[in-house]
Amino acid sequence: MAGRDLTDTEKRALKGRDSDVASFLEKVRQMPAPARAGSARGRLVFALDATMSRQPTWDHAIALQGDMFTEAGKLGGLDVQLVYFRGLSECRASRWTSDAEGLKGFMTQIACRGGHTQIRKVLAHAVREAEKGPVSAVVYIGDAMEEPIDTLCARAGELALRNVRTFMFQEGRDPVAENAFREVARITGGGYERFDLSSAARLRELLKAVAAYAAGGLKALESQGDAGRLLLRQIRPGR
User: Fold this and answer.
1) pTM for the whole thing?
2) Which H or E run contains 105?
3) What angle, 0 to 180 degrees and rounded to 10, lies between the N-to-C axes of helices 149-161 and 175-188?
């Protein structure tokens, strides 16, 4: 999907922003561990743009995202719900599950279809889920944004009121998408990161770290290798 040119105001808003991992992790630095009573499980909404613009890299992305589900399954204490949109109006969600292989199988059945973005539906769905019970975090992966940004910001505000942080991962370099993704992440207190095939390994580790954080906060991050240690170094000073 080709994005429109940015206005002068949007260009000024983007000026000087940094998409490097250190910037992403700084967004997470002062986050407390997700609060859950007793033995309650963490819940992570994992949302995907499955429109046709993502077709060239879809198979690779599916494998990458599958690694996150595998890691979530190893962690225990975390239920994941997969949400995706495609076509002109299709937006669907799986059931909540801790079955990593089942999630991966469900995801491999999704084929890209032409259409416009439906990010507002994803965020509205996350709000409804948070009204039913605590949601630890939302992860969103996409490459475009074709909706009124104020609508997305309003939904992001509702998530922020429910203490749901959103981690926005952008494939490619569409400046309109970047502006919107950064703003949603900022409003919810989450994080933003851009990726492409050359930075897939970095995204894989960050996704695993977010899953660990959603499942068990700081303690769970200790088993996440370099990405986990980097997150811990950023978060501990804010505790």
Assistant:
1) 0.79
2) helix 100-108
3) 20
User: What are 66-101's pLDDT values in tens digits?
Assistant: 877 887 777 677 899 999 999 999 999 999 998 888
d(CA 9, CA 24): 23
How far from each other are the two terminal CA atoms of the chain, in whole angstroms? 41
Cα–Cα distance between 214 and 228 in angstroms, integer? 12
Instruction: State the Cα–Cα distance between residues 160 and 140, nearest whole angstrom.
Output: 15
pLDDT tens per residue across span 46-70? 999 999 999 998 888 888 788 778 8
Rounded-to-integer distance, Cα 93 and Cα 125, Å: 9
Rounded CA separation 28/9 (Å): 27
What is the spatial distance between Cα 76 and Cα 80, in angstroms, rounded to a whole number? 11
pLDDT digits (tens, 9 = 90+) for 123-132: 999 999 999 9
Nearest Cα residue to 145 out of 107, 111, 112, 172: 172
